[in-house]
Amino acid sequence: MKTDEEIKNSISVTFEAPDTIVEVFKEGENDQQDNARQAQFLFEEIKRVIAENNLGACNYLIDMRLIGSVHYISPEAMEIYSKKLPSETKMNKAAIVGQSLLLETTVNLVMQAVGRGQSFKWFNDFEEAKKWLMTS
Known about the structure:
By secondary structure, the chain is an alpha/beta fold. It has helices at about 5-10, 30-50, 75-90, 100-115, 125-135; strands at about 10-15, 20-25, 60-65, 90-95, 120-125. About 45% of the residues lie in helices and about 20% in strands. The radius of gyration is 14 Å and the shape is globular. About 30% of the residues are buried.
């Protein structure tokens, strides 16, 4: 099991004006406990960025390019992504950038399950994802 600091360093959450939260997964966590902790730290960072910038509904740019072609999502992490995050934050649109078909399928299922299937899109190119978020 990794230390809290190692897990926290595997993600980055920043604000990009006017209304975008940028999440970068620098490393995937395949251990069930580490994966759940990564999701919890990500959730806490998103809430911190929202509070610091006094944000209401915002866009999300999620960069998963660095985690490779396979990524595990633990049941605990799935609970955070599919229930806790949507219930405590407001999303306009989400652009997700990655290279994994398996991960794309998993994310698609989660977004459909939380009723956000029409408000997100998967991209292979980071700049295309940013452009899509800027359109109404």
